[in-house]
Amino acid sequence: MVNRAVLYDHLKSSSAQIRLIKLRRHDTNTIGQVSGELATFSLDDPQCPLFTTVSYTWGSAKEYGDEPVKLNGQDKVALKNVLALLRMLCCTSAENFDLAEDWFWIDSICINQDNLSERSSQVKLMGQIYRQAKATIVWLCGGSDDTNTAIELLSHLADRRHELRKDYKKRAKRMPEDLCGHPGWKSLERLLELPWWRRVWTLQEFLLAKELTFYCGAQSISRRVFRKALHSIELCGPLEDYIRKAAWTTAWNRRRLIQWYEQDHNRPKMSLVSLMAFCGDYETTDPRDRIWAMHGLAREEDRHMTGRPTYCYDERTLYTGLVQAFLYKYKSLDIMCFAQLFQSKEDGWPSWIPDWRVSCPPYVVPLMVSQSASDALANFRPVAGSRMGAKKFKRITAYRASGTEEYAVEPVDMFNHLSCRGIVIDSIDGLGGLPSRDERVIIQGTASTSPVNTTPADADHKEEVFDGLVRSLVLNRHDKYLESLAPVPRYRKEFRQLVKFADGGCEPGSLGPACLYKFVGECYVDGMMDGEALGLGREVQDFKIE
């Protein structure tokens, strides 16, 4: 099993081979060089030993430890974060681990990072690796008094969940008096702001592990206790005075996702595109991992659609390929709408291709297409069901402007122009402004003589009506776990965006050979969201989008 001449021998992807590491414990608690052996096994072999996976952050600059690890008699440089974990495991005080029997899978050590082909094949196996592992260790950071305080508060909150749930049923959410001003809140906030929570690969590792334990140095807390603590915190009510929203949302969204997958095994998995949007503000060293880190979590048809993970192409090529594959597989343009969220700042980037390198925080319903009647964007935000008697209807059609017609899309040309068919509903030649000061004086002076004696609404009221309108375009959901105020400033901006022509473009309806459009985003047209436009008798035309 162990090849002492070569640290990284060839892995056979056809038999799902991986490397595992076994460590040797130090005789004392003093820090010494970490040593062990690296061996190859097949995940498909019944003789493959039980192993533990390790989840951690690499660090943006790939910081390396102050000394190498000795594996199979050879020195191997280890990341600073990994070396700290290995030292903890090798100490005699780490009684939770039996190093005489335990094998570990640590990607930065067990994968030859200099072999691009091996990296791609191992990424394909990551879902299987984490599902098959007996447990997962999450290394958040080295321990400190601050992290100890945070973990103690989490354990305390988990123990009080039953009490807090009873209080919640009796009255509205409120923070118990003994927890108000507790010093552990700021420690917990700092714990939830550690880099691990925002790294894109860690989501898969968090969701797929059979058992998972968080470590800050030697102090630990299980995923089960952590989830109970988060529920207790949610029952306490508004958290703005205790934990910053960004820190809380990242942890809570993970709880929401794992609960979705665990509660009903018959539920379909989320689509690849929905997962990418849900993790739109996660960080990644390699932008291609925006796709591949979600690959193992997505539904099977989307994994087939994208093919095997590969690092042979740059991110622009991969993102373009994903959109094209989606268009042709699902006969749907829905994926294009994500380009208004992930809007590229790079010159020459096609307007219809989302640039998933752009950071975009998750929303309850990020787009209208997220509540489309199509299953192409399967997610965990089902439209609230309706009832008639005892019979509950299945999924309600939300928005489907094309009715039952499939989208017609032509192959992308050599200039990355997308041609699709559609109908011009109308054109807008301008937007009216608010009344000027002089107009208001005239209106006020003549109001008493008007047959209908009503005073026009003031500007603030108009803005309130407008805010209500943009909020109303998002339907109500059963998903209370993602309740939050709608991002009205973003919606207002998008609502007022109409259409953008490329340089040298033309007016709608004037579709000459040189007519190019830029895609701005989705659009709500009242009375036209369920295929009504197809019955207007308008000419179906070709639109070329750059």
Q: What is the count of β-strands? A: 16
Q: DSSP strand (E) fraction? A: 5-15%
Number of helices: 16
Q: Categorize the overall geometry.
A: globular
Poorly predicted runs are 382-397, 445-457, 475-482, 495-513
Oligomer: single chain
Average pLDDT level: 79
Class by SSE composition: alpha/beta
Q: Which strand order spans the largest sheet, edge to edge or round the barrel?
A: 6-3-7-8-9
Instruction: Give the radius of gyration.
Output: 28 Å
Report on the biggest sheet: 5 strands, mixed
Q: N-to-C terminal Cα separation, in Å? A: 55 Å
Helix content: 25-40%
Structure report:
- The chain contains 16 helices and 16 strands.
- The protein is of the alpha/beta class.
- The chain has a domain at 13-133.
- The protein has a 5-stranded mixed beta sheet with strand order 6-3-7-8-9. A 4-stranded mixed beta sheet has the order 1-2-4-5. It has a 3-stranded antiparallel beta sheet with strand order 12-13-16, with no helix packed on it.
- The chain is globular and about 80 Å long.
- This is Heterokaryon incompatibility domain-containing protein.
Helix and strand topology:
Blueprint (H helix, E strand, L loop, with lengths): L16 E7 L11 E8 L8 E5 L13 E3 L2 E3 L3 H11 L12 E3 L1 H4 L5 H17 L2 E7 L3 H15 L1 H10 L13 H9 L8 H8 L3 E5 L2 E4 H13 L9 H19 L8 H7 L10 H7 L4 H7 L8 H16 L56 E2 L2 E2 L16 E2 L7 E5 L14 H10 L12 H14 L15 H9 L3 E2 L15 E2 L22 E5 L1
Parallel strand pairs: 2-4, 3-6, 3-7, 7-8
Antiparallel strand pairs: 1-2, 4-5, 8-9, 10-11, 12-13, 13-16, 14-15
Helix pairs in contact: 4-6, 4-8, 5-8, 15-16
